[in-house]
Structures are given as structure tokens and as C-alpha cells.
């Protein structure tokens, strides 16, 4: 029994050690940032002004390491079924494979709570437009059904009854491992979150000078909190439903107090259901 205890302890310790990834070379593809003055769209993203989550507080949040010809990029994602993860479409552009890290708190360590798989099967919404950031949603199909536990759980999709809802005024939670301050280039080791409020697209359009589309959803930046580098693809949750996928922000500063932009899940719900085994909420 003593020997078994030692072996188990050593196994658990090994799982908490640093993994094979050279994180100094991992890039953030993150928030597709918009400059409303010049109309420029470019890639850049993070959870700014949030706080560290506790272990298994957000069991639907996953980390994605996307291999491309130009290197490895990090994005977030949300588990929506036993075999599917929702993320931002721009995270998957030019990808050749995606490593999915589920059940992670410290995404850079091999925690005993984690399940990791590599997928070669992922899709970008056919309506994704990199020029307008419309329908910036993609899905990663897992090679086998994941085993749910306290650390790995799906987040429900919206219902078809939510199609006409704006969700404006509702409190929402955003999650991710993105960088935590302007000027930083390294993502957070541990999962972070922030509480925010969903805005109307009309109000959001004021900050983005008319560039907000029906397929977008915006959250406010009260007290200069919001999404910024490394958070792209992460979950925006309201009423315990995945209402948004973190997508874009303004280029000049994540802490400037401007809204954060996301993909509105209801506008892509039919597509998500058609290509995965995820189902809408009742």
C-alpha cells in the first residue's frame, strides 16, 4: 500500500510539471482588433482587469494550441458537447492541427485534472469575413468523446427562443488565459475571468463608428476591464448559456475603456448544430 501511495504521488507530481511546449515561441492570434478611425482590422487580444479563477470554476473553458505553417498560436475555446469545442474562426485560419487542453487551470503545466487531445478536424463558419469580422466562429471536433467530470463540463448553447434576444443589460462572464495588461506579450499561466455587462449593438456602434454587425455582440468596459491578447475564442456566458465568442477589440489599448467585441452565437446556432453533436438549450 505504501508503495502504491508513492507511485500515485509521483504520477501526480509528474502531471504537474511543465509540459513539452516552448511557451516563449507560442504566439497569440487573439482579438481581431479594429481601429475605428482608419477602418483597420488586425489581429491582437486578453482578459484585462479581471481576476484569477479558482480550480474548476469554469469547466467549459479550454485552451487551444493551433499549429500553422507560421508557428503555434494560442486561443481559448468553449466545450459545447462531448466531441465539440466552439472558438473564434480567426483562431483556426491556416491551422493544420489543434491541441485541445481541457480541465486546465494552469494551461502551461500538466495538471492531473487535464485531458489533452489533438484534432485534425476543425471548421470555420462559411460566412466568416475577415474584413468585417462577421461570423467569426469555428468549431473543433474532438477525435473521441471526452469524459465529463468536475473539471470538464460543457456550456449550454442558447435556445432557438433566444434568436430575437439582444441580451442587452444582462450580466456576463468572460474567461481566458490572455495577457493581463497592455504592453505584455506573455499570456497568463492561470485562467482568469471578469464580470461585465452586455451592451446593445446600437450603443457599441458609437465606439466602433458603425462597424458593428448583427452577428456581433458587445460587452461594456466599465472600470477599464475587457478582453484583449490571448483571449480570442474564449467564452462569453450569460444566463449559463454561451452567448458570445471573444473576437475583437480596439487596437490602441485594451485598458482604454472601449467595448469588447464578440461573435453572437445565436446568429450561428443553426450552423453549429449542423456540424457538431451539440444541441440548443430547450
Task: Sum up the structure in keywords.
282 residues; mainly beta; Thrombin, subunit H; eight-stranded mixed sheet; 10% helix
What is the CATH topology descriptor? Thrombin, subunit H
What would you call the structural class? mainly beta
What oligomeric state is this? single chain
Radius of gyration, taken over Cα atoms and rounded to an integer in Å = 18 Å
- The mean pLDDT is 85
What coarse outline follows from CA principal-axis ratios? globular
Largest sheet: 8 strands, mixed
Question: Span from first to last CA?
Answer: 49 Å
In percent, how much strand structure appears in the residues? 25-35%
What is the name of the CATH superfamily? Answer: Trypsin-like serine proteases
The percentage helix is 10-25%
Parts with pLDDT < 50 across at least 5 consecutive residues: 1-16, 42-46
Query: So, CATH architecture?
Result: Beta Barrel
Name the CATH class: Mainly Beta
Element pattern in H and E: HEEEEEEEEEEEEEEEHEEEEEHE
What's a quick, concise take on this entry?
The chain is mainly β. The protein has helices spanning 2-15, 201-208, 269-275; strands at 27-28, 32-35, 40-43, 47-48, 51-52, 61-68, 71-79, 84-87, 97-102, 115-119, 121-124, 138-141, 157-159, 171-176, 192-197, 216-219, 226-227, 235-238, 241-248, 260-264, 280-281.
